[in-house]
Amino acid sequence: MIMEDLFGGAVSDRTGPRPRRESGYMNVDIKQRFKDLGYRLSRWLSTRYGTDRMSRDLLIAGLILSIVSRLLRARLLYSLAMVMLIVSVLRTYAPSASWEKRQRELQIYTGLYRKAKNAFKLAKLTLTDRQHKYLMCPSCGKLMRIPRGQGDIVVSCPGCGHQTRTRS
């Protein structure tokens, strides 16, 4: 039954949800289209490189640089941040034909990352521990610790056996 409200408009006396429509041709077609889309998307993503440490670090650095550049209103930093974000996305969705290139890039990045991390670790240890001297093996890059005050000594690397002459 339809009634009139205070302003003359028609108002239904039905309270509650609308009745559900029968699932017809259109609803089944939409469900099938979404299933097909999901299948095609998963098939497409299975042939992509995916994320790795370099892509993740580029994404994080790009986001941080983007925020900092917005705070400082520096267009050059913002452009650099956008380039980093784009490279990260392109690396993630690179086709499977370029996996070997991505692996080589990752190996180079991992080596540089490890060297930088060891350099910071060496600087921190040198500043905090005054009783020992810290060296890096020139052959394999392993961190070595020797006691201070011993004069000129020959140190053998425990990792590769390379011998180095140094002052403690």
Widest sheet: strand ordering: 1-2
Poorly predicted runs are none
Largest sheet: 2 strands, antiparallel
Radius of gyration: 32 Å
Number of domains: 2
The secondary-structure class comes to alpha+beta
- Residues in helices, as a percent range: 40-55%
Mean pLDDT: 83
Percent in strands: 15-25%
Q: Give the overall form.
A: elongated
Say how many strands there are. Answer: 6
Number of DSSP helical runs: 4
How many angstroms separate the termini?
99 Å
Q: What is the string of helix and strand elements?
A: EEHHHHEEEE
What's the topology here?
Blueprint: E1 2-4, E2 10-12, H1 25-46, H2 53-72, H3 75-92, H4 99-128, E3 132-136, E4 143-147, E5 152-156, E6 163-167
Antiparallel strand pairs: 1-2, 3-4, 5-6
Characterise the protein shown here.
The protein is α+β, with helices and mostly antiparallel strands. The protein has two domains: 90 residues, no CATH class; 39 residues, no CATH class. 54% of the residues lie in helices and 15% in strands. The strands form three sheets. It has a two-stranded antiparallel sheet with strand order 1-2. A two-stranded antiparallel sheet has the order 3-4. Strands 5-6 form a two-stranded antiparallel sheet. A hairpin with a 5-residue loop joins strand 1 and strand 2. Helix 2 runs antiparallel to helix 3. The longest helix is centred in the last third of the chain and has 30 residues. It is elongated and about 90 Å long. The mean pLDDT is 83.
